[in-house]
């Protein structure tokens, strides 16, 4: 499978970039993971919105779902302009009924509830879930495809179950919204130090730091994570593309 970083900022997008959004593809199947602010704009650097086969949402904070409404509009306009005739599945949890219901739009998209206790199959991807530690219900995803594994922590503070969940992943896409020594936990986020600790304990192949803060020197995040993890560490950036 191949992953392209569409957006990687925590909270809101930096000018000309986007908050959380990742495009996962395999054999032509296109899955968008999270659809935050400015994701629809950045996504069009790579594909047309109507080429998406499915969308999956980790949780209903604005920096992960802000562009769902404009995705609806893009597909509706495409229906009238170029005959788009699909119904795009948007997977989300239904712990928050109002937000879940808003995923469905006319005959254009359908919200589909996932169950954290049941593996989900979307196209070529098998997805397991783990509820994270965050102010609202949020789910990390362990995505397997042809023997390769991507783990996306979504938004979370550090907790020990993440280690087993991330075990031996080829790529760990871990949020690092704070620097070493800061209190990430009270906001429901991890520090660079914790992301490195998680990568080390889970014995992953590569650590990608994402959901980045809008302050400080970002390269410091990599250095701090490297104090705990001796494998490859990459800072997420717009358009970063990885095959696994
Ligand atoms: Zn977030
Ligand atoms: Zn959040």
From TrEMBL:
- SUPFAM superfamilies named in the record: Metallo-hydrolase/oxidoreductase
Return the InterPro entries for the record. Metallo-B-lactamas, RibonucZ/Hydroxyglut_hydro
Q: Record's CDD domains?
A: RNaseZ_short-form-like_MBL-fold
Has the keyword Zinc been applied to this entry?
yes
What's in the keyword line of the UniProt record?
Answer: Zinc
Which GO terms fall under molecular function for this chain's record?
Answer: 3'-tRNA processing endoribonuclease activity
Q: Which Pfam families match?
A: Lactamase_B_2 (PF12706)
Task: Give the matching SMART domains.
Answer: Lactamase_B
Q: Does the keyword Methyltransferase apply?
A: no
- The UniProt record lists the Metallo-beta-lactamase domain at 18-211
Lineage top rank: taxon? Bacteria
PANTHER family per UniProt: METALLO-HYDROLASE YHFI-RELATED, ZINC PHOSPHODIESTERASE ELAC PROTEIN 1
User: What name appears for this protein in its UniProt entry?
Assistant: MBL fold metallo-hydrolase
Q: Which organism is it from?
A: Lederbergia citrisecunda
Supply the source organism's classification: Bacteria, Bacillati, Bacillota, Bacilli, Bacillales
């Amino acid at each position: 499978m191949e992953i392209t970083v569409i957006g990687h900022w925590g909270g809101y997008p930096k000018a000309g970039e986007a908050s959380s959004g990742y495009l996962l593809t395999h054999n032509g199947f296109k899955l968008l993971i999270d659809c935050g602010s400015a994701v629809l704009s950045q996504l069009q650097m790579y594909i047309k919105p109507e080429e998406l086969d499915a969308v999956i949402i980790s949780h209903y904070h604005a920096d992960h779902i802000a562009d769902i409404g404009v995705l609806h509009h893009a597909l509706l306009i495409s229906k009238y302009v170029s005959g788009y005739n699909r119904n795009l599945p948007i997977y989300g949890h239904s712990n928050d009924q109002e937000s879940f219901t808003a995923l469905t739009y006319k005959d254009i998209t359908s919200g589909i509830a996932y169950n954290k206790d049941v593996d989900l199959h979307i196209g070529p991807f098998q997805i397991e879930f783990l509820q994270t530690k965050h102010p609202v219900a949020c789910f990390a995803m362990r995505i397997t495809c042809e023997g390769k594994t991507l783990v996306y922590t979504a938004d979370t503070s550090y907790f020990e179950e993440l280690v087993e969940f991330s075990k031996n992943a080829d790529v760990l896409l871990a949020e690092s919204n704070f620097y070493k020594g800061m209190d990430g936990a009270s906001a429901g986020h991890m520090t660079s130090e914790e992301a490195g600790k998680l990568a080390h304990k889970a014995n992953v192949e590569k650590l990608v730091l994402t959901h980045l803060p809008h302050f400080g020197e970002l390269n410091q995040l990599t250095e701090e994570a490297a104090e705990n993890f001796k494998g490859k560490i990459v800072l997420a950036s717009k358009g970063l593309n990885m095959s696994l």
